[in-house]
């Protein structure tokens, strides 16, 4: 019996596959040392033999077989695409249809499936996202929402569980996904031990701020808006004022922000607030009440709730890191 079945498709994102296996192997090692339950897994693909990954790497896999005795969570790392056109081509490759059929059968028999990044589109192609919540890479989120209008696509989350499905954001969110699955299917202790062993715990808490950091470096409009929002704290600048400052209507600004980030203008403001709050808490110099006041929250409870929703962490955890 296996806890996890790792489904590797041709051209899969090599680092996502490797990080998945490294996390499981580390869980087996530290779990045995600490006397904790350890994961059991197998690596499967559309057919047995070597599967080509990105950058010329290969991985030996077992054939994907459906069985009533298989109660494992099927885990699909990112399928290795960077834009919508290449995604459409990948989903039209011969391996896709059999995998989509198998996903439907696995779910119909009450089993679990987890996918990250572009692999979430396999769940959409299988019709599994209807009426559910899901996340994916921020630059693919608008396309996923268009394909699945009755699914709530929320790129704010690195990992979003809506049983029997669990989805994760960009390719490196595969590590967040595996820690989440270890925590839920085995124990919080094994997930925490793996996070410490691989130095993932601090990166996990910072992961929701990766997108703004990248955009500040590569998008002049978002960079300008981010600086303006930060400088306005603790008095929050409104969407109307931001739009006026760049000579746009609120609707036009919203369209540009959403295209660049997958977020609304209000969500961008919120993420800048939260990033500033994180930095203040990590300094260890301020109480939660003082931090909330410095980033524009009169009620620290609201800041705690936001941190729990977007970071899955408390102010105390952030200060400890």
Report on this model:
It is a single chain. With 321 residues, the chain is an alpha/beta fold. It folds into 2 domains: 196 residues, Class I glutamine amidotransferase (GATase) domain (Rossmann fold, 3-Layer(aba) Sandwich), CATH 3.40.50; 113 residues, Arc Repressor Mutant, subunit A (Orthogonal Bundle). The protein has 16 helices and 10 strands. A hairpin with a 2-residue loop joins strand 9 and strand 10. It is globular, with a radius of gyration of 21 Å.
Concise synopsis of the structure shown:
The chain is α/β, with parallel strands linked by helices. The chain has helices at residues 14-34, 84-91, 96-108, 120-125, 141-147, 174-185, 188-197, 201-206, 210-218, 220-232, 239-245, 250-261, 265-283, 288-294, 300-311, 315-320; strands spanning 4-7, 41-45, 49-52, 58-63, 73-76, 113-116, 133-134, 152-153, 159-162, 165-168.
């Amino acid at each position: 019996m296996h806890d996890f079945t790792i489904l590797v498709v041709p051209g899969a994102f090599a680092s996502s596959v490797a990080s998945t296996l490294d996390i499981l192997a580390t869980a087996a090692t530290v779990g045995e040392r600490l006397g904790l339950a350890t994961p059991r897994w197998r690596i499967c693909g559309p057919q047995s033999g070597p599967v080509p990954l990105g950058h010329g790497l290969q991985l030996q896999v077992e054939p994907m077989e459906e069985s009533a005795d298989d109660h494992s969570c099927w885990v699909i790392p990112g399928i290795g695409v960077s834009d919508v056109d290449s995604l459409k081509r990948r989903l039209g490759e011969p391996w896709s249809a059999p995998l989509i059929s198998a996903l439907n059968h696995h779910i119909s028999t009450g089993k679990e499936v987890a996918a990250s990044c572009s692999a979430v589109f396999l769940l959409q192609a299988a019709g599994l996202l209807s009426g559910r919540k899901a996340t994916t890479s921020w630059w693919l989120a608008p396309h996923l929402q268009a394909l699945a209008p009755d699914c709530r696509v929320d790129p704010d989350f690195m990992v979003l569980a809506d049983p029997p499905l669990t989805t994760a954001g960009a390719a490196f969110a595969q590590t967040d996904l595996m820690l989440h699955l270890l925590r839920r299917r085995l124990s919080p202790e094994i997930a925490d031990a793996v996070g410490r062993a691989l130095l993932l715990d601090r990166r996990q808490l910072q992961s929701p701020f990766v997108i703004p950091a990248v955009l500040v470096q590569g998008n002049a409009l978002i960079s300008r808006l981010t600086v303006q929002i930060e400088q306005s704290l603790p008095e929050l600048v409104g969407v109307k004022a931001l739009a006026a400052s760049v000579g746009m209507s609120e609707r036009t600004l919203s369209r540009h922000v959403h295209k660049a980030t997958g977020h609304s203008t209000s969500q961008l403001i919120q993420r800048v607030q939260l990033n500033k709050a994180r930095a203040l808490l990590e300094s260890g110099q301020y109480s939660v009440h003082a931090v909330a006041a410095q980033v524009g929250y009169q009620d620290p409870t609201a800041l705690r709730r936001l941190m729990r929703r977007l970071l899955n962490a408390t102010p105390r955890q952030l200060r400890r890191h």
